[in-house]
Amino acid sequence: MPLVVGIDGDDTLWHNERVFSMTETRFQALVAPWAPEESDLEALLLKTEQANLSALGYGVKSFTLSMIETAVTVSEGRIPAGVIAEIIAAGKEMLAHPVELLDGVAETIEAIGARWPIILVTKGDLFHQESKIARSGLLPHIQAVEIVSEKDPDTYRNVLARAGVDPADFVMVGDSLRSDIVPTLEVGGRAVHVPGTFREWELDRADVVPDASERWRRVTSIREVPAVLSSFDRSR
Ligand SMILES: [Mg+2]
Fold first, then answer.
1. Measured between alpha carbons, how far is 25 from 90 in angstroms, rounded to an integer?
2. Ligand 1 mean position to 119 CA, how many Å?
3. What is the pLDDT of residues 5-38, one digit of tens each?
């Protein structure tokens, strides 16, 4: 059985947090004139996002609804419809934003795909993720795509069962300890952590760092991933 490589999308293959951060800055500028002077709009938006996760899930569309909800709440309903329209426009611009691959991704994914089957495992809006994957130019190197609503151990068990892959033959590569590394180790797979270079999303932060183990490594660049995969492949 060949090693099978799972790869995360947002902030592992392409920029994502940077786009959210730009929109948050724009949101704050739009809403600040309608909010009490002492309001911490960044913290309030994050709180709304967190409260909405179970009902709305991840992605730009739920983020846009959370921006609108925060604007209405913090202004006690006084926010003008024109500002709401600008928030909606900002959300739509995020969806249309060009897919910008991270440094080294194009050649590394080509190199990995030439040796091992790749399953892209990403969470967020189905429609937006499909569009980003199509625009990334990476599809020729990827065997299968799994767009999931949450990345917990059950998700990985289901993904592996669908692909007919034994967890011992699976390596997950991603920027998030909480979503990519910890649950993969829990189901018996291996993992390579490639921390993001921009910022880590608050709500994707891990409560625990996995114990030092032969089953996971941290690298500073995606370019180091093929060498780690080779060593995992040899040590099975
Ligand atoms: Mg990610």
1. 11
2. 14
3. 999 999 999 999 999 999 999 999 999 999 999 9
